[in-house]
Write a structure and sequence with these properties.
The termini are far apart. About 55% of the residues lie in helices and about 0% in strands. The protein has one domain: Four Helix Bundle (Hemerythrin (Met), subunit A) (Up-down Bundle).
């Protein structure tokens, strides 16, 4: 039977490999092509994933007085509800095109490996007190990692849709 850490590690691997597979379908031109007015390019979407997934705010932690995964279902329900649309906080808005595919791919691989290392070597039950997640408050390391996965899945779907739109344009 798989442990929780093994499941999480597998999920990290799957989410980021799926993202890399989808990005591989774009060439440099389509990666930087705006699909619709006021939309991000696939490259910008990948940069946004990189910004949000580059780590977790766990410099300061404390013992959680609740279940380590208490907020996972609510995070999943929010970020994997594709009917909802969000406006990104200015601090996580990607820069303008062009984006280099090889640079994005390298950064995504580094993030995947970094997150897997956190999942393997860190106490996932501790509460991260460096920052609060909007509307959710403080999250455990486990919840932060799950959020990053849900967020990555959400925007991987966006990249798929960008590719479909550009193919039909």
């Amino acid at each position: 039977m798989e442990t929780e850490k093994e499941i999480l590690n597998r999920d990290i691997e799957n989410a980021f490999n799926t993202l890399l597979d989808e990005l591989s379908k774009f060439d440099e031109e389509t990666l930087n092509q705006v699909p619709l007015e006021r939309s991000w390019t696939a490259g910008q979407t990948a940069e946004h994933i990189i910004i949000c997934g580059s780590g977790i705010p766990d410099t300061k932690t404390t013992v959680a007085n609740r279940a380590y995964d208490e907020k996972v279902n609510a995070l999943r329900d929010l970020f994997l509800n594709f009917e909802l649309k969000f406006e990104a906080d200015p601090s996580i808005v990607p820069g303008p095109p062009p984006h280099r595919k090889d640079t994005l791919v390298q950064k995504i691989k580094e993030i995947r490996n970094h997150l897997k290392n956190i999942a393997e070597t860190s106490d996932l039950t501790t509460l991260c007190v460096d920052m609060e997640f909007p509307s959710f408050g403080q999250l455990t390391r486990y919840e932060w990692l799950r959020f990053i996965l849900f967020h990555t899945q959400r925007h991987t779907r966006q990249i798929v849709n960008i590719g479909k739109h550009l193919a039909n344009a």
